[in-house]
Design goal:
By secondary structure, the chain is of the alpha/beta class. The protein has 11 helices and 16 strands. Strands 1, 2, 6, 7, 8, 9, 15 and 16 form an 8-stranded mixed beta sheet that branches. The protein has an 8-stranded mixed beta sheet with strand order 4-5-3-11-12-13-10-14. Helix 3 packs across helix 9. Bound molecules: flavin-adenine dinucleotide. Flavin-adenine dinucleotide binds next to helix 2, strand 10 and strand 14.
């Protein structure tokens, strides 16, 4: 793998940027692999990387129907945090956060992880109680989270309006280790590192069927580029998971919704952290290019259209203008949507399935980007060992049958 270093950058800079090679090969599908991952988002690419790197699985392919990172990985607002309520969730997301902290070095690729702090606002007495409950629960499980008064919240984020607004700011939870990362770089960094370990990354290759042998186990995938044999298949296809799992006759408790985001025209650095408001459902940060990155809520109905309803983004902008009046005259440059896969308890599934050789990583809903390295890491373990890693052991499909829910829905209302 060509390595990035200050010396390499200087050398290429002085020689007209000649000599850089492609970041990953344009691989052709082979007849068979030890493991095939369906979905070239961050979770799928990361899983392939950890399979090759930590479990020494020899022949691994990632099949992506479009281009890598073209799904939710490239469409999200990149909020990273680990201050979830339940111990199972905090362990999973904090595993990810610890990996984020060293990811650029591990991949030799700058994923621009920026731990600038995530502030979660409380607007009602219930919000305050719920926010403080999170703070205490997190601290009991060793995850940083602290409670701020409205004045302390404004000191941390000076553009925040705490005076005389429709939804008063009564306090805020702050996770200082939380922040953002560059979404595309995460897909590209994992792709490049996986490719260097021999993983075939095959774009424009849609999986259209899953073949099972007489015993019911997975034996091959039908794709738009031919049949690909594999005895172990990991599906990490976000909003399209139900469609793919139905090919193997597996029904999951998932619903797919459009979720939208917007960016403004770029301005000079003005916004120092990430701010989320679950109650009025808007969240905002500033990208390194200077654009305000704003997230809205999901549509109220299921759909695969990859664009959301206009009134949803309008509602988010009304909230942003009230919380941050200095942004009232900003222009929005563009908006877009992604299809998110939502479980009844708003927690993911990272598990074996009833079909031998078929594994699934899904249900991340509105908040799976932050989990990317941790989720990929434990999913690779699950596929390599044919049993869950202790961190993802609670995130089974069977919990919906057995009532062992990890109810981050009631706890968080939204999970970005
Ligand atoms: C607008 C928006 C804002 C968000 N904001 C945040 C946030 O701030 N923080 C956060 O943590 N999370 C956020 N999320 C959620 C987050 O983006 C996702 O949970 C996460 O990126 C999912 O990653 P993934 O790799 O599983 O899926 P994806 O990146 O969607 O990758 C799945 C891939 O599977 C491919 N695929 C589908 N069907 C097939 C097939 N038949 N054959 C082959 N390939 C197939 C798709 O083309 C896609 O590339 C947001 C999502 C959206 C849409």
């Amino acid at each position: 793998m060509q390595r990035f270093s200050a010396l390499a950058l200087l050398k290429r800079g002085l020689t007209g940027q000649r000599g850089w090679r492609e970041q990953w090969r344009r691989a052709e599908p082979q007849a068979g692999y030890d493991v095939v991952i369906v979905g070239g988002g961050g979770h799928g690419l990361g899983t392939a990387y950890y399979l090759a790197r930590e479990h020494r699985v020899g022949r691994v392919a990632v099949l992506e129907k479009g281009w890598i990172g073209g799904g939710n990985t490239g469409r999200n607002t990149t909020i990273i945090r680990s201050n979830y309520l339940y111990a199972e969730s905090a362990a999973l997301y904090d595993h990810a956060l610890k990996l984020w902290e060293g990811l650029s070095g591990a991949l030799n690729y700058n994923v621009m992880f920026s731990p600038r702090g995530v502030l979660m606002l409380a607007h009602t007495v219930h919000d305050v109680q719920s926010g403080k409950r999170h703070v205490h629960a997190n601290r009991a499980s060793g995850v940083d989270n602290e409670w701020l008064t409205p004045q302390e919240a404004r000191a941390y984020c000076p553009p925040l309006n705490i005076d005389d607004i429709r939804y008063p700011v009564l306090g805020a939870a702050l996770q200082r280790r939380g922040g953002t990362a560059r979404h595309d770089a995460v897909a590209w960094g994992y792709a490049r590192a996986a490719d260097a370990l021999g993983v075939d990354i095959i774009e424009n290759c849609e999986v259209t069927g899953i073949r099972r042998d007489a015993a019911g186990a997975v034996e091959a995938l039908e794709t738009t580029r031919g049949l690909v044999r594999a005895r172990r298949v990991g599906v990490a296809a976000a909003g399209h998971t139900s469609v793919i799992m139905a090919m193997a006759g597996v029904r999951l408790p998932l619903e797919s919704y459009p979720l939208q985001a917007l960016v403004s025209e770029p301005v000079k650095p003005v916004f120092p952290c990430v701010v989320m408001s679950n109650t009025i459902h808007a969240y905002i940060s500033q990208s390194d290019k200077g654009e305000l990155v704003i997230g809205a809520g999901t549509d109220a109905y299921t759909s695969y259209t990859q664009r959301g309803a206009l009134h949803i983004s309008g509602h988010a902008l009304e909230a942003i203008c009230e919380l941050f009046p200095l942004f009232r005259r900003m222009r929005m440059l563009r908006n877009w949507g992604g299809i998110v896969d939502v479980t009844p308890d708003r927690s993911p599934i990272i598990a074996k399935t009833p079909v031998p050789g078929l594994y699934v990583n899904c249900g991340w809903g509105t908040g799976g980007f932050k989990a990317t390295p941790g989720s990929a890491h434990v999913f690779a373990w699950t596929i390599a060992h044919d049993e869950p890693h202790p961190i993802n052991a609670p995130f089974t499909i069977e919990r919906f049958r057995d009532g062992e829910l990890i109810d981050e829905a009631a706890a968080a209302a939204v999970a970005h």
